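User: My collaborator sent over this chain with a note saying "see what the structure looks like." That's all I know about it. Can you take a look?
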Amino acid sequence: MRIRIDFYKWSYKLSPLVASALGYPPVAVETPEGRAEYATAQRGFAERAGALRARLVAALDAALAA
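Assistant: Without extra context I'll predict from the sequence alone. Here is the result:
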Protein backbone atom coordinates (compact mmCIF):
# COMPACT_ATOMS: atom_id res chain seq x y z
CA MET A 1 0.00 0.00 0.00
CA ARG A 2 2.85 2.40 0.77
CA ILE A 3 4.12 2.40 -2.81
CA ARG A 4 0.68 3.27 -4.20
CA ILE A 5 0.29 6.11 -1.74
CA ASP A 6 3.73 7.43 -2.68
CA PHE A 7 2.71 7.39 -6.36
CA TYR A 8 -0.27 9.55 -5.46
CA LYS A 9 1.80 11.84 -3.23
CA TRP A 10 4.38 12.55 -5.91
CA SER A 11 1.80 12.85 -8.67
CA TYR A 12 0.01 15.42 -6.54
CA LYS A 13 3.21 17.32 -5.79
CA LEU A 14 4.10 17.31 -9.48
CA SER A 15 0.56 18.19 -10.57
CA PRO A 16 1.62 21.25 -12.56
CA LEU A 17 3.81 18.94 -14.66
CA VAL A 18 1.75 15.72 -14.64
CA ALA A 19 -1.69 15.31 -16.16
CA SER A 20 -4.54 14.63 -13.74
CA ALA A 21 -6.89 11.64 -13.85
CA LEU A 22 -9.69 13.49 -15.63
CA GLY A 23 -12.54 11.32 -16.76
CA TYR A 24 -12.43 8.97 -13.78
CA PRO A 25 -15.52 9.06 -11.60
CA PRO A 26 -15.10 9.67 -7.86
CA VAL A 27 -15.18 6.65 -5.56
CA ALA A 28 -17.42 7.04 -2.53
CA VAL A 29 -14.99 5.57 0.03
CA GLU A 30 -17.30 6.63 2.85
CA THR A 31 -19.70 3.81 1.92
CA PRO A 32 -19.10 0.05 2.16
CA GLU A 33 -19.66 -0.28 -1.60
CA GLY A 34 -17.19 2.51 -2.33
CA ARG A 35 -14.55 1.00 -0.05
CA ALA A 36 -14.99 -2.35 -1.80
CA GLU A 37 -14.66 -0.66 -5.20
CA TYR A 38 -11.53 1.15 -4.02
CA ALA A 39 -9.97 -2.05 -2.64
CA THR A 40 -10.67 -3.90 -5.90
CA ALA A 41 -9.11 -1.10 -7.94
CA GLN A 42 -6.05 -0.99 -5.68
CA ARG A 43 -5.50 -4.75 -6.06
CA GLY A 44 -5.65 -4.31 -9.83
CA PHE A 45 -3.15 -1.44 -9.74
CA ALA A 46 -0.78 -3.50 -7.59
CA GLU A 47 -0.99 -6.49 -9.94
CA ARG A 48 -0.33 -4.36 -13.02
CA ALA A 49 2.54 -2.53 -11.31
CA GLY A 50 4.26 -5.78 -10.27
CA ALA A 51 6.40 -6.06 -13.41
CA LEU A 52 7.47 -2.41 -13.21
CA ARG A 53 8.26 -2.77 -9.50
CA ALA A 54 10.38 -5.88 -10.21
CA ARG A 55 12.32 -4.03 -12.91
CA LEU A 56 12.96 -1.12 -10.56
CA VAL A 57 14.17 -3.41 -7.78
CA ALA A 58 16.46 -5.26 -10.22
CA ALA A 59 17.93 -1.97 -11.47
CA LEU A 60 18.54 -0.76 -7.92
CA ASP A 61 20.07 -4.09 -6.92
CA ALA A 62 22.44 -3.90 -9.91
CA ALA A 63 23.38 -0.31 -9.12
CA LEU A 64 24.07 -1.09 -5.46
CA ALA A 65 26.10 -4.18 -6.32
CA ALA A 66 28.44 -2.19 -8.59
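A starting point for your reply to your collaborator: The chain has a mean pLDDT of 82.
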